[in-house]
Protein 1
Amino acid sequence: MHAPVFMGPANAREGSGYMLVSGDQQIVEKVKPLLEKMTGQLVNLGPEEGKAAAMKLIGNCFLVAFTAGLRDTFALAGALGQQPRDISGLFDIWNPAQMLPARIRRMSGGDYTKPSWSWQWPAKTRRYLSIPLSSTAATWPLCLQLLR
């Protein structure tokens, strides 16, 4: 049985956060009451041995990519003379994470004939941007490297 968690020390103390579990369902049912006390939500991913561990690694990969995206967002904001608090204000009113389930469905559906995004818009964006960044592309946020 695997039972990895998405929680930090504060979550562990509070019994909040998420715990994934997979493996022999007889064992899972036996320890379920104990596990539920340790977490805010126990997510049973079924009998497949190792599925919870795999999903934990996949989740961590997403968190790393998410954090790298924020780093690039802050770099771009700084290059444009904007403050991190302004970014926070934007995301307080517009939450792009709400698009995640629909984007995952589109990307995992395999139909790539109707893209929701095109490389045509970056050319338009480039015309409007005059960004005083270093001429060394390696120091540019990834989103701007893609626009070059």
Note: The longest strand covers residues 18-21.
Protein 2
Amino acid sequence: MRHTLTIANCRITGNVTGPGGDGEVNTVGGSGGLGAGVYVAGGSLTLVDSTVSGNVGGPGGFGSAVGGVGGEGPGVAFVGGAALLVSGVTFEGNIGGQGGEGGDVGGPGGGVGLLVIAATGEVRIERSTFKGNVAGA
């Protein structure tokens, strides 16, 4: 049975995910945490008439070969869930995690605002605003 999380008329602000772990010899660093504001894995999410702001993805970990990916979806990360409804939500000033340092290549910075991966149902975003969000470097 999959459940639904409903968030209405809320301010989700000032949250930070953890950093990615450092890799061993000839490895890639770990990824920074996902979804500092809200993280949903499985189930459904309804987010309405709310503000998601000032959340920060954790940095990617050091990799002796390649640095880890910075934390993505610092506002909301919706991973492998069923249905997603975002309505009347402002995503503002969220910052993706910095990519980790690497012995050969640094990792990419994390994306911003809202991250959706492998949704199995309807994804609907309406009457929402994305402003001043910054991707990690």
Note: The two ends are 39 Å apart (CA to CA).
Protein 3
Amino acid sequence: MGIWHLRSKRKPTGGLLKLHRKKKKFEIGREQTKTTIGKKKLKRISARGKNLKLRLVSNDKANVYTMKTGKSTLSKVLDVIKNQANPEFVRRKVITKGSTIKRELGDAIVTSRPGQDGTINAVLIEHAETTKKKTTAKTQEKKPVKK
């Protein structure tokens, strides 16, 4: 059975809607591409209007942006640490937007959509700054209120 981006067959009240036309080709969907760690492999997909989309099937490198220096570097992806989309993706090493990846110089959060953009872009996590911000926020909450 195919994937379609159609309107629901049900009304908000739960009743059935009458279908006024058949399925159209522009409403067709595709199976999601689950990007994994491995040798770089791209998949070309023809899109509407003679356009091409690049789907990243697997890759072992990521463009990582560092906030302190303001520069991007290409580095090797070692592992997937956390994935909020699906906890099983960590075991299967699937990279999606928002997942945390382990690399040579530290952890990074993926900001691009590898299955649709054809590349892995990420932002480096600075652990020292994040822990400092958390501790200062906790100390500010604990201060007693003067009456």
Note: The radius of gyration is 22 Å.
